[in-house]
Structures are given as C-alpha cells and as structure tokens.
UniProtKB/TrEMBL annotation:
InterPro entries, per the entry: Bact_Chemotaxis_CheA, CheA-like_dim, CheA-like_homodim_sf, CheW-like_dom_sf, CheW-lke_dom, HATPase_C_sf, HATPase_dom, His_kinase_dom
Organism of this sequence: Hymenobacter oligotrophus
An MF annotation (GO) of this entry: ATP binding
Species classification: Bacteria, Pseudomonadati, Bacteroidota, Cytophagia, Cytophagales
Alphabetical keyword list: ATP-binding, Chemotaxis, Kinase, Nucleotide-binding, Phosphoprotein, Transferase, Two-component regulatory system
Name of the protein: Chemotaxis protein CheA
EC number(s) reported in the record: 2.7.13.3
Keyword Phosphoprotein included in the entry's annotation: yes
Length: 545
C-alpha cells in the first residue's frame, strides 16, 4: 500500500507536470503576442499555484523559482515592465529549470542547482540587465532533443467512477449467485471457477472503492474561512483546530455530509460557544475553541465537531419539546440525557430565543440527521453543561456495498445494515422481563426494550399490544439495533449469515413505505428487503405501549 507521502508526491507531480506544459504553451503564445492578456493571466495563476503547492510539499527550491517568476509576471500584468528584449530568454529559462526540477522530484533525485537562474531573476526584479550564459538562451534548434513526458496520473470524472461502481455491484450479485449454484450442484470444476470469480470480484470491488477515496482534508480545509465569518457575525472569538485531514473516505459521502458539517460548525459557534463577556464571567478564556477532527474506527470513519462552549442544557431542551407538543410532560421527565438529545433532531426544533443569521430560523439539526440517515450512518452527542459539546458523525467508508446481517421472518429473508447492528443474542423467555407493557432484555448491563419485528412491521397505526412473555416459546433470536443513542431489540425467526450486499432503491409501491431502505438480490436469486433502522426506531417510539 502506498504511503500518504507517496500519494501526495504523485498528486503534486501530476499537477506540476500539467502546469509546466501549460506554462510552455502560454509563454510561447506571449512571445508572439506580448499583449495577450489571457496567456499572461494564466501564466501568473500557474506560477502562483505551483509556488503554493511546492512550498506545502517542502520543495522550497521550486517554490523560490516560481515565486520570483510569479512576481515578474505580475509586474508585466500591471504594466510595470514589458515582456520583451533580454527578459524573454530569462523567463523561458526559468520555465525550463522548473521543468527539470519537477522531473527530478518525480525521479526522486536531487534537484538541479537553480542559483544562476535565481540570481538573474533577482537582477530582473531590481531592474538590472540579466547575465545570459549560452545555456540560458533558448534556441529554436533545441526542440522532438527535448524529452516529452506524460503524467502517470489521469483525472476521472466522478460520474464515471459511479458507473463503474454500479457495474461492480452487479458483478457481486452475480458472483453470489454463481457461488450458491456451485454449492447446490456440487461440481468441483464449477466450484473452482466460482472461487476464482469471487476473488476477482473482491479485488475489483476494493480497487474501485479505493479509487473513489479522498482525504477529508479536501472538505476540512474550507472551514477556517467559514469559522472566521460566522464568529465575526456572532461577535465571538473562535480558534479552529483541524486534525485527521489524511483520513480517507468515499468522495460521494463527503459530498453528502458537506451541508451537515457546515450546519454543525455554525451551530457550535451560534449555540455552543459563548461571547467573550459570557466566557469571562464563568472564568473561561475569551477565546473559544472549536475542533474538527477525523479518525478511523474499524470500518467506519468518525468525524467530530467539538466546542468548549456552554454545553447542552438538558432541562431547557425538555421544556422546549413539551412547549412544541413534541412529547407529553410526564414522558419528557422520564427521558435520559441521550434520549433528550435525540429530541433536538426533530424538524424545526430550536432553543434560540431570537432569530439571527445563524440560529432560530427553523432550520435545525434535522437536516444533519437526514443526511447521516441517508448514508446508513449514526450521529452521537456528548455534552457537559458549562464545558462543551461533541457531535460525532459515524460514517461508512463506502455507500455502494454494505455489510449486512441476513435473517428470516415469516418465511422471508431480510437484511439489516451492520452499521446499525449492535449485537445479536439468543435468549430464553424467562430472561426477558415485562415492565410497563414492554419486554426488556438485560444485555451487557443495559436494559433494552424488545419487540417482535413481525408486530412492528404490520400496517397498523395502533399502539403495540402489551408484552406477553408467556406467549414466547423456546429461545428467541434477537437483533440489538442502535440508532441515535437508542437501542432496540428485534425478535426474528432465525439468524442466517453476515455478508456484503449491494443495495438498490425500492420500486413502487414499496417506495412509499419508509421502513425499507432498499432491496438486494441474494445468491439464490431471491429479492431481499433491507430494513431501515432509523425508521423502525421512530415507529417503535410512536407505537410503544
């Protein structure tokens, strides 16, 4: 596997070689037409970008040459000097030296000495005549002796990668069907071909998924300006710390969470971090701190937004939820802190006392929750009053192929994404307890509500029937799901297996039922519905006794 440093060097090389080719083209145009504004603007832009990229990578010699060239082109652009006479060969020589330096980086060899060129560029900048040596003057007969090189990297539109990943998904479905048939037939030759096909499909799947990965820094690095602007609008002082920019994630996932992340950052500054005066009154530094970080956890990517602000006032959230008619007073009083946090993700919920550019506009955390749910991810909240809040986005690295738990219910196969599967247990009826009309199971020192999935999936809007433990016979297979800090046990008929699945959108009329997040095709050719855990959890809350 390539190191991050190697990947960045390859990206630098790809862009730098393209820039060098473009510079050579534009300066040739400028030599023929010194008044060509478009060529001049492009040369200035290319030099500026090459300077910034080279310095970021630590290639200071390239950065110094590009910096001086940028300055001279800037002066030509502003009409402070003319592109003519002895200036022309020096600038051509500068581009040639930059090309040699870039190729040296690609070959991992020492960069050529650019001292003579830098001295000449300095003379030009001081308004002196450059000292031209024979090798600094560009002759027409020096050109097919030049070595022409193409970049080892190509840029591919994301739509092409999307299409390729869809084809891989189809291949995986057919792979599973071939494997199933080979097992049923018992043909040794067919089984060998099926095993080889399986390995090829796996390698192709991971290769395509790897090609779609980008560093989260491509999004994170846009936030310093956002934080500055929002803090200014809110009249607050905020320092942003960013870490984990190298963590890789599917580019489409990054695109989907862009608005959610923006909202959480704005929310942290608008609702979380106090004004300098408020912070001073409670003994805090006037400067608020906001951290945007990423890390990997098993197969997931965790993105955290942490502030050291006022924290979430749980009692205030309870009161607002009751005032909005979101939950009865007696029910609100029984909610845990985690359950109270989940109330903030309902549409239109806000604790803002007045409308500002940042808060109180009816656009709440529900937009964040919807984005995370669409990815099959999770959103965790941790907060301590007076000390700050952390929102954690738990995201898959890819959205096309997902791990799932397959199970049977009433003779049909269903799938449950592993992202929302906490654990599976098999319990005897006497290990379940009926409390308040609900069954509870004690799993790892937690009391988790349990419901028959068949009852939850019926088309009734009526409350669930009070739990009857005596009606249960034999061991009960229970899937413990987790969503938004809330766990729920689903009683199913039988566990089948865990496997990667390709999720396709549901077609009419099932697309009207939000309990299903899609369908997949099993190796047997059977269509399998994929359950939507967030929707199931909301349904249970609405129908519980």
């Amino acid at each position: 596997m390539k190191s991050r440093e190697q990947e960045y060097r390859e990206l630098f090389m790809a862009e730098a070689l393209e820039a060098y080719d473009a510079m050579s083209q534009h300066i040739s145009v400028l030599e023929k037409r010194p008044d060509d504004e478009a060529a001049l603007q492009e040369l200035f832009r290319l030099m500026h970008n090459l300077k910034a990229n080279a310095r970021a990578m630590g290639y200071t010699e390239i950065g110094e040459v590009a910096h001086r060239m940028e300055t001279i082109f800037g002066e030509i652009r502003s009409k402070e000097r003319a592109f003519s006479d002895s200036l022309v060969p020096v600038l051509f020589a500068g581009i040639d030296v930059l090309g040699e330096m870039i190729r040296a980086v690609g070959a991992n060899r020492p960069l050529p000495d650019g001292t003579a060129l830098l001295d000449n560029l300095d003379r030009v900048m001081r308004g002196e005549e450059p000292e031209l040596e024979p090798n600094q003057v560009r002759h027409s007969d020096e050109d097919a002796t030049r070595k022409l090189e193409l970049s080892d990297l190509v840029y591919i539109p994301i739509k092409k990668l999307d299409h390729l990943l869809n084809l891989v998904g189809e291949l995986i479905i057919d792979r599973d069907r071939v494997l199933t048939i080979s097992q049923e037939v018992g043909d040794v030759a067919l089984a060998s071909i099926a095993a080889h096909l399986s390995r090829l499909a796996d390698d192709l799947q991971y290769s395509v998924m790897d090609a779609r990965l980008v560093g989260v820094g491509t999004l994170f690095n846009k936030f310093p300006r956002v934080v500055r602007d929002v803090a200014t609008a809110e009249q607050k002082q905020v320092e942003l710390t960013i870490s984990g920019q190298d963590i890789q994630i599917d580019r489409n996932i990054l695109q989907i969470i862009t608005d959610a992340l923006l909202h959480l950052v704005r929310n942290a500054i608008g609702h979380g971090i106090e004004t300098p005066e408020e912070r001073a009154r409670v003994g805090k530094s006037p400067l608020g701190h906001l951290t945007l970080s990423a890390q990997t956890e098993r197969d997931d990517v965790l993105i955290r937004i942490t502030d050291d602000g006022r924290g979430i006032d749980v009692e205030r959230v309870r009161r607002k939820a009751v005032e909005r008619g979101q939950i009865p007073t007696d029910a609100a009083s029984r909610l845990s802190d985690v359950e109270v946090y989940s109330l903030m993700f309902e549409a239109g919920f806000s604790t803002a006392e007045q409308v500002t550019e940042i808060s109180g506009r009816g656009v709440g955390l529900d937009v964040v929750k919807l984005a995370i749910d669409s990815l099959g991810g999770q959103l965790r909240v941790e907060s301590q009053l007076g000390q700050g809040t952390t929102f954690t986005l738990v995201l898959p690295t890819s959205i096309a192929v997902k791990g799932a738990l397959l199970f049977q219910l009433d003779g049909h196969s269903y799938a449950l994404p592993l992202m929302h599967t906490d654990s599976v247990v098999s319990l005897r009826p006497e290990q379940l307890h009926a409390v308040g009309g609900m069954l509870l199971a004690k799993v790892q020192d937690e009391h988790i509500p349990v419901v028959k999935l068949a009852e939850l999936l019926d088309d009734s809007d009526e409350p669930l029937q009070p739990a009857d433990r005596e009606a249960l016979t034999g061991r009960q297979d229970i899937i413990i799901t987790s969503y938004n800090g809330r766990k729920l046990g689903l009683i199913v008929d039988q566990f089948l297996r865990q496997q990667d699945i390709v999720i396709k959108p549901v077609s009419q009329p099932l697309d009207m039922i939000d309990l299903f997040g899609g369908v997949t095709l099993l190796g047997s050719g059977q269509v399998c519905l994929v359950l939507d855990v967030p929707a199931l959890t909301r349904l249970f809350i609405a129908r519980r006794p």
